[in-house]
Every structure is written in structure tokens, then in C-alpha cells.
Hints:
This protein is an alpha+beta fold. Helices cover about 30% and strands about 40% of the residues. The chain contains five helices and ten strands, in the order βββαββαβαβαββαβ. It has helices spanning about 35-45, 80-90, 110-125, 145-155, 180-190; strands spanning about 5-10, 10-20, 20-30, 50-60, 65-70, 95-100, 130-140, 160-165, 170-175, 195-210. The strands form two sheets. Strands 1, 7, 8, 9 and 10 form a five-stranded antiparallel beta sheet that branches. Strands 2-3-6-4-5 form a five-stranded antiparallel beta sheet, sandwiched between helices. Strand 8 (about 160-165) and strand 9 (about 170-175) form a beta hairpin.
Amino acid sequence: MSEPFITIAKNTSFEMVIKKSRFICSIDRVETEEAAQDFIAQVQAANRKANHNCFAYMVGDNDQVQRESDNGEPSGTAGVPILESLQLAKLHNVVAVVTRYFGGIKLGAGGLIRAYSNVTTNAIHQAGLVQRVIQTAVDITVSYAQHDKLLYFLKEQQVEVANEKYGVDVTVTIFVDQAKSDDLIGLLTNRFNGQLQIKKGQPRNHEVPYQPA
């Protein structure tokens, strides 16, 4: 993907009262459509007396699966605004359910759209955002004599040491953003005159805090 993979940092819920109606947005991270449907069912079961449990979800690295439901609200006034809030935040693998307890005052189509949109957006802000970065494990075998020099160099490059194994030499394991791994290996090779043994390992997903521009 050319765009960053962004999702919520934590599962959360956010409540707003608008003209005596309670709107509660429950938002959750999911990896599959089945997990999204399970979460919707859980929220519905916990709010059986609610007038509506409207929802939207986006699943897949490229948002292959997108669904929304008004759950009895006028067509287009609930599910679509929830989905558009998720899209606007550029989220992936997330489901949002907005529970409404009717307070006796009708909001009209425009009022409903604003209510469902605002409560979802507030839930997203409360959850916070993270960006998923693909990192590569790199094992660096270094002599004891060069060990401190290597650690100092890694600190200079703002690279944290994940693990160290001590034997005849020291094997230092680090994780580097996949896009930057070859550049760092080149710097290591030059700085230590080819005296290091460097081996790439398996990739992993790593999450870092994300702030929209």
C-alpha cells in the first residue's frame, strides 16, 4: 500500500446526549468480517432495550469489505455517516456500532446524520490512532571488542536493541523499518569495515503513534 496503514490505538466507547437521545459509539479493531459481525452482535445483546444499533465497518488492507446499516433509522441517516467518519479518518480493520436510546424528540434527517457522524468522530479521537509499520529483524554478530562501538552507533541511529545473545561473539538483534533496512545495513558495513556478520530475519508488524497532518 502506498498510503500508511492506520487504525485505532485502543477499543473504546463514547457517549453523547443530543435532545434527550443517548448516542453511544462503541469502536473496536477487527481483522475479519466475522469478527466485526461478532462485535456488532455483542453490542446489540448488551443494548437490547435500545431503539437502534447502527453500524459500519471496514476490513482488509485495502478496505475490501465495507458494510453499513441504519438498523431502522431513516435510510442514509446512520450507517453511511458512521462509515464516512471511518473513511475520513483513513482507518482500516475497524468496526463502529452506534447505539441510540430515543429521548422522545425527533432530530430530523440532518440532525441524525450530524449525531451519528459526530459521536463516531469523537470515539475515534478518544481511541487514538496508530500506524502499522512493517519491520525487518536484523541479526548483527559482533566481537566483544567492537560491541560497545556497535551499541553506540545504533543509539546514534535511534535504533533500539531487541535482544542480545552471548557466545564466542555477541549477536545483537534489532528491528528496522523494512524500507530503511538496506540503508542501515550499508551504514553498518561501512562503519565497521565489513567486520560484522549481518543477517536479515523475518518481518513483523509494528505499531507507532500516528498524528494526522
